[in-house]
Design a protein that fits this description.
Elements lengths: L2 E3 L14 H13 L4 E5 L10 E5 L3 E5 L10 E2 L5 E4 L2 E3 L2 H24 L1
Parallel strand pairs: 1-2
Antiparallel strand pairs: 2-3, 3-4, 5-6, 6-7
């Protein structure tokens, strides 16, 4: 059973509580992932806040962006923007995940570089 940070019971008190899909996924991760997995909800990563980050020592990190969208109402334009209507766009979830991955990688590589000096 994985460990969720902050605890599931306190998530409804957050400034931005989890969506229905995020909460469902957090509960599933907590129940089905091994006990040495750490599951973080909206961690602050140098300005980024991915929905979920899972860490497991000796294995790595996994970043999850949850979208509770009904895909019938969306399409992707030629620039990769996710469009709801002609006047509104949503952030590309692949781009959001890429940014969070880059932030984690940069932080880890900085530590490796500093240790070697």
């Amino acid at each position: 059973m994985g460990t969720v940070y902050p605890p599931l019971e306190s998530l409804t008190e957050k400034h931005q509580p989890p969506t229905e899909g995020e909460l469902l996924l957090l509960k599933a991760f907590q129940q089905y992932l091994p006990g040495d997995c750490e599951i973080f909800f909206q961690p602050y990563l140098n300005g980024d806040r991915p929905d979920i980050v899972i860490l497991r020592k000796g294995y790595g990190a996994h970043i999850v962006e949850v979208k509770d969208w009904n895909l019938d109402y969306y399409n992707v334009d030629n620039q990769g923007n996710w469009c709801l209507t002609k006047d509104k766009t949503e952030s590309n979830p692949q781009f959001l995940k890429y940014n969070a991955t880059r932030t984690i990688f940069t932080a880890c590589m900085s530590r490796v570089y500093l240790k070697r000096r």
